[in-house]
UniProtKB/TrEMBL annotation:
It holds the Pfam family Aldo_ket_red. InterPro entries: AKR (IPR020471), FDH-like (IPR044477), NAD(P)_OxRdtase_dom_sf (IPR036812), NADP_OxRdtase_dom (IPR023210). This is Aldo/keto reductase. Residues 15-302 form the NADP-dependent oxidoreductase domain. Coiled coil: none annotated. One of its GO terms (cellular component) is cytosol. GO terms for molecular function: oxidoreductase activity.
């Protein structure tokens, strides 16, 4: 599988990444055997970038991902985790986590973007994963913590990067405007952009993507299915968009995009995975994968050839923005992975 380097670092990512939030029991229980088999299937398919976070299952995702990768050659894969949410004992457990993960809530999350908090979080992650280092560390959802994140957390990560402890640093968020600030105003190398450069939302063209291109920095795209609406060939009522039931107008728009995809001999989910790669600053698309079957499907979708004419038709019909890059960046219209 093709790899692309995070600009100005030594870290390279496969163009498709494994998102480990779902193996932390996001929304429903994932048996441990399925989680391990999913990581094995990703490895067998050539995926070498794996992303996790303490937030995912109150550490369960990190435990499972670390165990699944432990016997793999450490210099052959890239792993990222995140800081900003420390896991601390929960004084008032109710039995199950309240933030979408089906796990016991013996621990709780505590926001902390201080220098000590960052160092403690990384140490805890290394203990949970059983690894000796992390390749990438992101600040996780610092929306309401800009000042501490920019003034304390990012300089702490920069020190670790400059010492060679971490390969690359950045931030991951569901919004694009603050990610642009991290690229412009801090030492960030890369940002993880969730849901803001997809077939249904290209708002990142207003801020973070121009910043990345201007400064020669990199972007990892996640949430490319917008919580599900773009994950099937034919969208239906009741599917999710940004974690909520999709409004009828968005369902209709997704169906219209699906019609154009079909006319070009491809499918909506294949186009959804390919679309972020049309921007030259986006070097990776990472997808949540719960089972080996999901891995196989996503790898097959990623490998499909997307005709160049699809993007032009979507622009012409007003289904994507007219300022989506015409040169198609690293889009896969001309080759099949």
């Amino acid at each position: 599988m093709h790899q692309r380097k995070i600009h100005n670092t030594s870290v390279s990512l496969t163009e498709l990444g494994f998102g480990a939030s779902v193996i932390g029991n996001l929304y429903r229980v994932t048996p441990a055997a399925d989680a391990s088999a999913a990581v094995d299937a990703a490895w067998d398919a050539g995926i070498r970038y794996f992303d996790t976070a303490p937030h995912y299952g109150l550490g369960l995702s990190e435990h499972r991902l670390g165990a699944a990768l432990r016997d793999r050659p450490r210099d052959e894969y890239v792993i990222s985790s995140k800081v900003g949410r420390l896991l601390v004992p929960n004084e008032r457990p109710r039995g199950v986590d309240s933030e979408g993960f089906v796990v016991r809530d013996d621990l709780r999350r505590q926001w902390d973007f201080s220098r000590d908090g960052v160092l403690r979080s990384i140490e805890d992650t290394l203990e949970r994963t059983g690894l000796d280092h992390l390749d990438i560390v992101y600040l996780h959802d610092p929306d309401n913590h800009w000042r501490q994140a920019a003034d304390e957390a990012m300089p702490t990560l920069a020190d670790l990067r400059d010492q060679g402890v971490i390969g690359a640093i950045g931030a991951g968020m569901n919004q694009s405007a603050m990610l642009a600030r991290f690229l412009r105003e801090t030492a960030a190398d890369v940002v993880m952009l969730a849901g803001r450069y997809t077939l249904l939302d290209q708002s990142a063209l207003d801020d973070v993507l121009p910043a990345a291109r201007e400064l020669g920095k990199s972007v990892v795209a996640v949430g490319v299915f917008n919580s599900g609406l773009l994950s099937r060939d034919r969208p239906t009522e009741g599917m999710k968009y940004d974690y909520r039931d999709a409004p009828p107008a968005l369902v209709a728009r997704a169906r219209a995009i699906a019609d154009v995809c079909e006319a070009h001999g491809t499918t909506l989910p294949a186009a959804a995975i390919a679309f972020p790669h049309t921007h030259p600053s986006i070097i990776n698309v990472t997808l949540g994968m719960r089972t080996p079957e999901q891995v196989v499907r996503n790898v097959e979708l990623h490998g499909q050839r997307i005709p160049d004419g699809l993007w032009a038709d979507l622009r012409a019909q007003g289904l994507i923005r007219s300022d989506v890059p015409a040169e198609l960046g690293r889009g896969r219209g001309s080759r099949c992975l």
